[in-house]
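My hope is that you will study the protein record below before we discuss the fold together.
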Amino acid sequence: MFLHIGGSVVIAAEDIIGIFDIRLREKQCNKEFLQTVNPFEDTQEEIKSFIMTRDRVRYSPIAPGTLKKRFQANLFER
């Protein structure tokens, strides 16, 4: 199963650790963590969420609630 996170990016569901609201980035400890793991990607789209995977952090223009619904819908399609 894969999760489409916007643009042409899909992530394997088993690699996803968490889906988070980008507003969490405003806290200093989170900002430092995200800069250390994966510098902020320059994009034309507004970033609304970040997805933590086994090997990196990906940014998405899709709201975390929408990604969660997509993820749950894919779980029940099996």
